[in-house]
């Protein structure tokens, strides 16, 4: 169990087609999701079980929208970016400038990139769908190889 200063965090691990994914939750909501290992106390929590099922469906091309309770902790600006990322349809991409425009802060595209980088719940909050204005794959906290694979997966099942 990992403490966050508020509630303890519990962990579940899923072996995706692209590698290990760690999922952390409190008793009610997903708090973090990342490629690689994040330490936590493995517990049978319904929200973690549901997350694994929805990830399995996503990687099989059967799930386009996640319906899990999420709990993020960011600045109001970060929260607005993370909300806007969830509005990007499956299989589509947006630029950092597009997101900045959508949150009514068109000059904040660099800050959007920083918020994107700090997204604690990758895949479910689909920061991999944000690309450079010229269409280039730029910046992904999990690594560009994962970003490319996730976008290819979504194009395949779109």
UniProtKB/TrEMBL annotation:
<dbReference type="Pfam" id="PF01035">
    <property type="entry name" value="DNA_binding_1"/>
</dbReference>
<dbReference type="InterPro" id="IPR001497">
    <property type="entry name" value="MethylDNA_cys_MeTrfase_AS"/>
</dbReference>
<keyword id="KW-0808">Transferase</keyword>
<dbReference type="InterPro" id="IPR036631">
    <property type="entry name" value="MGMT_N_sf"/>
</dbReference>
<dbReference type="InterPro" id="IPR036388">
    <property type="entry name" value="WH-like_DNA-bd_sf"/>
</dbReference>
<dbReference type="GO" id="GO:0032259">
    <property type="term" value="P:methylation"/>
</dbReference>
<dbReference type="InterPro" id="IPR008332">
    <property type="entry name" value="MethylG_MeTrfase_N"/>
</dbReference>
<dbReference type="GO" id="GO:0005737">
    <property type="term" value="C:cytoplasm"/>
</dbReference>
<keyword id="KW-0234">DNA repair</keyword>
<keyword id="KW-0489">Methyltransferase</keyword>
<feature type="active site" description="Nucleophile; methyl group acceptor">
    <location>
        <position position="127"/>
    </location>
</feature>
<dbReference type="Pfam" id="PF02870">
    <property type="entry name" value="Methyltransf_1N"/>
</dbReference>
<dbReference type="InterPro" id="IPR036217">
    <property type="entry name" value="MethylDNA_cys_MeTrfase_DNAb"/>
</dbReference>
<dbReference type="InterPro" id="IPR014048">
    <property type="entry name" value="MethylDNA_cys_MeTrfase_DNA-bd"/>
</dbReference>
<dbReference type="GO" id="GO:0006307">
    <property type="term" value="P:DNA alkylation repair"/>
</dbReference>
<feature type="domain" description="Methylguanine DNA methyltransferase ribonuclease-like">
    <location>
        <begin position="11"/>
        <end position="71"/>
    </location>
</feature>
<dbReference type="InterPro" id="IPR023546">
    <property type="entry name" value="MGMT"/>
</dbReference>
<keyword id="KW-0227">DNA damage</keyword>
<feature type="domain" description="Methylated-DNA-[protein]-cysteine S-methyltransferase DNA binding">
    <location>
        <begin position="76"/>
        <end position="155"/>
    </location>
</feature>
<comment type="function">
    <text>Involved in the cellular defense against the biological effects of O6-methylguanine (O6-MeG) and O4-methylthymine (O4-MeT) in DNA. Repairs the methylated nucleobase in DNA by stoichiometrically transferring the methyl group to a cysteine residue in the enzyme. This is a suicide reaction: the enzyme is irreversibly inactivated.</text>
</comment>
<keyword id="KW-0963">Cytoplasm</keyword>
<dbReference type="GO" id="GO:0003908">
    <property type="term" value="F:methylated-DNA-[protein]-cysteine S-methyltransferase activity"/>
</dbReference>
<protein>
    <recommendedName>
        <fullName>Methylated-DNA--protein-cysteine methyltransferase</fullName>
        <ecNumber>2.1.1.63</ecNumber>
    </recommendedName>
</protein>
<comment type="similarity">
    <text>Belongs to the MGMT family.</text>
</comment>
């Amino acid at each position: 169990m990992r403490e966050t200063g508020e509630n303890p965090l519990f962990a579940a691990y899923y072996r995706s087609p692209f590698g290990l994914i760690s999922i952390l939750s409190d008793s009610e909501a997903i708090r973090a999701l990342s490629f690689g290992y994040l330490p936590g106390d493995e517990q049978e929590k319904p929200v973690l079980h549901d997350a694994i099922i929805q990830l399995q469906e996503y990687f099989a091309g059967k799930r386009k929208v996640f319906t899990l309770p999420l709990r993020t902790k960011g600045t109001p600006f970060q929260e607005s970016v993370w909300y806007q990322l969830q509005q990007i349809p499956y299989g589509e991409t947006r630029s950092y400038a597009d997101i900045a425009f959508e949150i009514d802060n068109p000059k904040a595209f660099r800050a959007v990139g920083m918020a994107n980088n700090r997204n604690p719940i990758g895949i479910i909050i689909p920061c991999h769908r944000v690309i450079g204005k010229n269409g280039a794959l730029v910046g992904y906290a999990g690594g560009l190889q994962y970003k490319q694979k996730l976008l290819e997966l979504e194009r395949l099942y779109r």
